[in-house]
Amino acid sequence: MTEAVALPPLAASSRTLPAATYDAILLAGFGGPEGQEDVIPYLRNVTRGRGIPDERLEEVAHHYRHFGGISPINDQNRDLKAALEAEIADRGLDLPVYWGNRFWAPYFADALKELHADGHRKVLVLVTTAFSSYSGCRAYREDLATALEETGLAGELELDKVRQYFDHPGFVNPNIDAVRAGLRTLAAQGDGAAPHVMFATHSIPTAAADVSGPREARPDGTEVPTGGADEWFAGGGWYVEQQRAVAALIMDAVADEFPTAEWSLVFQSRSGAPEVPWLEPDVNDAIEALPASVTGLVISPVGFVSDHMEVAWDLDNEALETCAERGLAAVRVPTVGIDPAFVAGLIDLVEERHVTPGGTPRDRVALTGLGPWQDVCPTDCCLGRAPKPTVASEG
Predict the structure, then answer these.
(1) Are the CB atoms for 371 and 120 separated by under 8 Å?
(2) CB 295 within 8 A of CB 327
(3) Dihedral of the alpha carbons of 272, 44, 300, 167, in degrees to the nearest 10
(4) In angstroms, rounded to a whole number, what is the distance separating the alpha carbons of residues 310 and 326?
């Protein structure tokens, strides 16, 4: 297992907040339909403001209808909530866990009203995304700020968010274990002589990727230019930089047993107008482009924290079908889900921020030179098309 290393603050991680005493945790999820009748209303929520007709939504709906109209994501968050509650109880922390979603019940507004009614006023938010991007961080903070305004609780509830945890050992180590197990499965089948590992993450528009994360500095502290000519800046911003760093960590950790395994970062689940550039290569295109010398493939959905619909459909159906069509042995390894190390890591993140009076916060740890990541985001961090007020933001 890779050991945690405490690192000095870097430019992107200089915005830390002092530890405080919180009285509850909000688990912030994406949400998903829980029956056939929910599918189109849910997709309307996800695409609100884009003017997409129901006929086009139905083209996506068949992914959900294939599974009875039920996304696995809500049950997975119920399981994660229960696992977090058990870990909190084991540590003797007095922090009840609430759950709210961006796009389906229980909605953020409902969760905030419940928190307030139960007497809570200072809440620490755990978001079910590990990496920095508009959709993976800022959109959650915007929607939470909107929910505070809509419920009239903006002056009543204080919401802080734990940092992005892409390189926290609680996230990295279960992914190392999963990739190692996948490579061992290939080797046991006799298909691991020349294996390849594809780290799959959600594709996003390249314009959004390039402005992901804070704008003022690279990991080494040097300035990030405002144009696209610079190689690093034009290569996907912090979103891609973070995922490449984690993939490299994982492959370094398994190199003792699989020194010849090669790897690549691939993207999945793109949507939107075809003329808009999104991050590439698509996982299916990347599989088809693998050289004949590759004898086995491990697909790691490193960009996700649970095996929800886009993992179950885009990888377990489409990507594995592409592998079968070219006769390539393949293993799709699990996400971190409710792995005990991941659950413990999330509560470690809570204990970086939450202390009882007179207590000491947990040390911040990171496994790459990019972290520990920031607690509070600059106003220009992960900008969307029309930035809105956010929680856990400067300015």
Answers:
(1) no
(2) no
(3) 100
(4) 22
- Indicate the length of the chain as a whole number: 395
Q: Which two tokens stand for residue 261?
A: 């395994």
71 assigned ligand-binding residue: yes
pTM: 0.92
Q: What is the pLDDT of residues 140-169, one digit of tens each?
A: 999 999 999 999 999 999 999 999 999 999
Tokens of 31: 């949400």
DSSP at 263: E
- What are the beta bridge partners of residue 264? 198
- The H or E element that residue 313 is part of is helix 309-313
Q: Check the annotation: does 13 bind a ligand.
A: no
Q: What are phi and psi of 186, to 5 degrees?
A: -60, -45
Domains of the chain: 11-165+338-353 (3.40.50.1400), 169-332 (3.40.50.1400)
**DSSP bridge partners of 70:** 34
Residue 48 CB partners (closer than 8 Å, separation 6+): none
User: Which structure tokens are listed for 331?
Assistant: 């293993």
Minimal CA–CA distance to 13: which of 291, 253, 214? 214
| Closest C-alpha to 1, from 173, 217, 213 | 173
Is 202 annotated in some ligand binding site?
A: yes
Angle at 333 between CA 201 and CA 341, to 5 degrees: 90
Ligand-binding annotation for 114, yes or no, is no
Confidence check: pLDDT of 234 > 60: no
What pLDDT, on a 0 to 100 scale, did the predictor assign at position 371?
75
Q: So what's the pLDDT on residue 7? A: 42
